[in-house]
Amino acid sequence: MSNLTDWLGQVQSQEPVDRDALRERVVTALKEIFDPELPVNIYDLGLIYSVDVDDAAVVEVKMTLTTPACPVAQTFPGMVENAVREVEGVTAAQVELVWDPPWCADNLSMEVKLQLGLL
């Protein structure tokens, strides 16, 4: 039997996934990852566009960076993906780097706008 077949068998025999609870744990993990240039986590910075969890506990994240010229553009999504994979209950993870819509300061949470003196 292949590893994929083994994995699918394990996933199918598991209890139903509490998708909301798992998504919450993933968001908590994302809030532990900070932008390399700003003292702000990537979730509150608005770099995370979506966190989707399916019934098999597979997590798909769509994220962006503040600019396509970001010096960590090649490595940062992989780091985020590894952090998501480490969240308890996640069976697999994929992070997709997207540029549309482009990131802008409107994506910042109110707390971050206050912290950075933008309000």
What would you note in describing this structure?
Helices cover 33% and strands 15% of the residues. The protein has 4 helices and 3 strands; from the N terminus they run H-H-E-E-H-E-H. Strand 1 and strand 2 form a beta hairpin. It is globular and about 50 Å long.
How is this fold's topology laid out?
Blueprint: H1 3-13, H2 19-30, E1 48-53, E2 58-63, H3 76-85, E3 92-97, H4 110-115
Parallel strand pairs: 2-3
Antiparallel strand pairs: 1-2
Number of extended strands: 3
What form results from the Cα inertia axes?
globular
Q: State the secondary-structure class.
A: alpha+beta
* Total domain units: 1
Keyphrases for this structure?
GMP Synthetase, Chain A, domain 3; 119 residues; alpha+beta; globular; three-stranded mixed beta sheet
Brief overview:
The protein is of the alpha+beta class. It contains four helices and three strands. The model has no long low-confidence stretch (mean pLDDT 89).
